[in-house]
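Schema walk-through. Below, the input block comes first and the output block second. Nothing else is stored per chain. Lengths vary across the set, and this one has 337 residues.
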Amino acid sequence: GSSLNMTGNATLNMVGTSVDRSGVRIDGTSTVSGNASVNMEGNSTDHYGVYVQGDGLFTDGAKVNVTGSSTAFPGVGFIGRMSLEDSANLNATGTSDMRSGIWIQGVNVSGNAGVDLAGRRTTNAGVYMASATSLTDGAKLNVTGSSVDGHAAWIAGPLTASGNASVDLAGNSSEGYGALVTGGASLADGAKLDLTGTSANGTGAGVTGNTSLTGGATLNLTGNSTNGRGASVSGNTSLAGDAKLDVTGTSVAAEGAWLTNVNVSGNASVALVGNSTNGSGAIANGNTSLADGAKLNVTGTSVDGDGARIWQNLSIAGNASVALMGSSTNGTGATVN
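--- output ---
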């Protein structure tokens, strides 16, 4: 098949527009290294603004800068896995009226490499990372999105991060999640995942699926919603080895902060902080289990709902501790049931 190979401070600049086809397109395997740079800018009405078909390897300080816009297709599409190593950087900005601003198959990022994605759209995801995403060895991933009818910034996952890698996900949506990770997340060895999101009718920030935190990893969610949950971690979540989970959310009509089925051990800690007008402030739901010095703090305030609540099953053992602090005008302040 076809291929693109660049090295030694080489530069490739591509600018294109089209009505029925992609504005800019690269087919085949791409290998870019040695501080080489690729710059793409494309616009299309009925196809991708910028379309990269095939796997890519970017290493040794390579730089890839992409700007794309489309009416009917994603502004930027990466159909294949992108791998970045050794301080390489991928920076992409995409906008679309009818599809995702950026649609990317998935990325592997390592060796202090970085990926920055910014997408905006009306009826689908602002940025959609469609399959497994992996980071290690100081890698960084920043995703910023906005959407009206879809999720703003969405990693479909699963997401794996280790070796002090960091992921920042931020978005704003009217009908969907502001920031969302689905398919679960596995964080280890000092990795950090931050989600910040706002939504009118959906959840502000959320993680769904099986989530695991070990080795000092941290997961932080901050979310705000009018009619949906402020911030939510649902599925099955486990923490060990000094890991930390912080969930902070605010909502008018639903729960401020929500957590389901959490197992905490090995001096790991969970903080759930929520505020709501008509729903409960903060809820830990399902099976909540703590052991071996683990800590759980649930703090919530509400007008018409419960302030702070641990709902269904609670198990505490081995010097673990739980602090439940809540206040409510018309509901129960703090409750376990």
